[in-house]
């Protein structure tokens, strides 16, 4: 039964724990089929209902998946195996274009912002009982949301986009509920959803955002929540266009009970306008983090939404961390007020690198996607081979398995650290790794 590994336990919790230990130790591999329910019950000498409860627990935790007559099998990417572990190591001499980080040269200096935050704290220390949100931060965030056409709603502050998404999902959903997510999409989110006991439902994405027909299928199939990236989608660079936003709003309006979560992490680094979807469902939030514009270590995201959702998020937050540090909030206020960065200049810098790489790839016959943000997505026939060949050529790229569920294979390239001198050599390496270099060379000399 399952090779050398034997599932053990007399109670449902013990059986589930035995399976999870085996997966964590590598004794059970992704895709491996678990014994039929009744067969395992006989083997363990327990009631079949006990095994059924164990399998249900594992499914709700995102560890296994069930597919009718095909039985239950270990998920290809179980929650105990984070996608962040799926990476190409960049040894000495290999350029890292895989990490998804912003260019440090495009981030604002933090010294003065932190000095101002400390001085403000000295004048008015942040103590128990103070409001969770700084008044100035709330006013600035509200004004920015209003300028971009986001519906009026209360605000909350979380420790980054993923923290905000987790709190919103937990405020409305229960284990076993399904969540429509972009595919390919943000790897950390694809890990988070099964870790919460929720089921991710893949929705295809093109350059204008989620494809309406794919989202409609997910909603008609019972998805309780939808997560949409408005701009600089990770990993494809998609940005929701005005036309697509109108289509998606009309679709969501037919499912008012669905929870809508919009992630606008690209705010401050893109020059494409925001086309919000919020306001057509009963429960919604729009989240903006400071990670890409001001630096990943400023763990702050402002979110607005309907009053019920924001009230639940605030209430649960009070029972946990309580609030996001006012020192961080004050630093962000200083950066916002002093216009520490020029979003248009930052967007142009990323755009120049992104467009130059895509143009060079197109010249070599390599298709690529990258409408906004700092990443380029390149479809490949075999991403394992492509990643290995690129490392050998001196470039560490991100394997598409970190971002995919059902979508075709690909690799992600972060353009943040690229210079004009890098573009052609990187494009040559990608063309060779994807198998089109030879054909391109032949065309060049025709």
Which word captures the global form?
globular
**If strands are numbered along the chain, what order do they take across the biggest sheet?**
4-11-10-9-8-5-6-7
Query: How many β-strands, per DSSP?
Result: 15
What share of residues are in beta strands? 5-15%
Radius of gyration: 23 Å
Number of helices: 16
Task: Summarize the structure in words.
- By secondary structure, this protein is of the alpha/beta class.
- It has helices spanning about 10-25, 35-45, 50-60, 110-125, 135-145, 160-170, 185-195, 210-220, 240-255, 290-295, 305-320, 325-335, 345-365, 385-390, 425-435, 435-445, and strands spanning about 65, 70-75, 95, 155-160, 180-185, 200-205, 210, 225-230, 260-265, 285-290, 300-305, 375-380, 395, 400, 410-415.
- The strands form 4 sheets. The chain has an 8-stranded mixed β-sheet, sandwiched between helices. Strands 12-15-14 form a 3-stranded antiparallel β-sheet, with helices on one face. A two-stranded antiparallel ribbon has the order 1-2.
- Helix 6 crosses helix 11 (about 305-320) and helix 14 crosses helix 15.
- It starts with 11 loop residues before the first helix and ends with a helix.
- The model has no long low-confidence stretch (mean pLDDT about 90).
């Amino acid at each position: 039964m399952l090779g050398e590994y034997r599932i053990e336990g007399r109670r449902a919790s013990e059986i589930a724990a035995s399976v999870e230990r085996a997966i964590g130790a590598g004794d059970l591999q992704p895709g491996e089929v678990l014994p039929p329910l009744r067969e395992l019950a006989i083997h363990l000498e327990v009631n079949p209902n006990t095994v059924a409860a164990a399998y249900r627990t594992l499914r709700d935790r995102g560890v296994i998946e069930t597919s009718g007559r095909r039985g239950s099998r270990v998920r290809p990417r179980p929650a105990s195996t984070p996608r962040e572990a799926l990476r190409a190591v960049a040894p000495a001499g290999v350029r890292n274009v895989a990490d998804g980080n912003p260019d440090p040269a495009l981030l604002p200096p933090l010294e003065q912002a932190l000095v101002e935050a400390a001085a403000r704290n000295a004048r008015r220390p942040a103590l128990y009982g103070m409001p969770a949100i700084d008044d100035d931060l709330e006013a600035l965030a509200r004004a920015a949301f209003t300028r971009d056409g986001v519906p009026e709603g209360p605000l909350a502050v979380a420790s980054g986009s993923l923290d905000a998404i987790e709190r919103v999902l937990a405020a409305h959903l229960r284990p076993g509920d399904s969540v429509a997510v972009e595919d390919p999409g943000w790897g950390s989110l694809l890990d988070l959803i099964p870790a919460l006991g929720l089921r991710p439902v893949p929705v295809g994405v093109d350059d204008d955002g989620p494809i309406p027909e794919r989202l409609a299928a997910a909603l008609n199939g019972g998805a309780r929540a939808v997560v949409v990236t408005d701009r600089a989608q990770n990993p494809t660079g998609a940005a929701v266009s005005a036309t697509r936003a109108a289509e998606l709003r009309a679709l969501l309006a037919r499912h008012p009970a669905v929870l809508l979560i919009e992630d606008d992490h690209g705010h401050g680094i893109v020059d494409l306008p925001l086309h919000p979807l919020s306001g057509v469902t009963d429960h919604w939030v729009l989240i903006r983090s400071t990670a890409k514009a001001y630096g990943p270590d400023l763990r702050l995201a402002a979110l607005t939404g309907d009053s019920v959702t924001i009230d639940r998020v605030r209430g649960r937050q009070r029972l946990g961390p309580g609030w996001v540090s006012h020192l961080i909030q004050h630093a962000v206020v200083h950066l916002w007020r002093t216009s520490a960065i020029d979003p248009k200049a930052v967007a142009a810098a990323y755009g120049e690198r992104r467009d130059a790489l895509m143009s060079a790839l197109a010249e070599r016959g390599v298709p690529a996607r990258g409408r906004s943000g700092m990443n380029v997505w390149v479809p490949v026939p075999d991403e394992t081979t492509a990643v290995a060949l690129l490392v050998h050529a001196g470039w560490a790229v991100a394997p598409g398995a970190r971002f995919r569920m059902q979508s075709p294979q690909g690799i992600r390239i972060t353009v943040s650290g690229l210079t004009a001198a890098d573009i052609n050599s990187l494009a040559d390496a990608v063309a060779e790794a994807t198998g089109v270099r030879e054909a391109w060379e032949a065309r060049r000399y025709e």
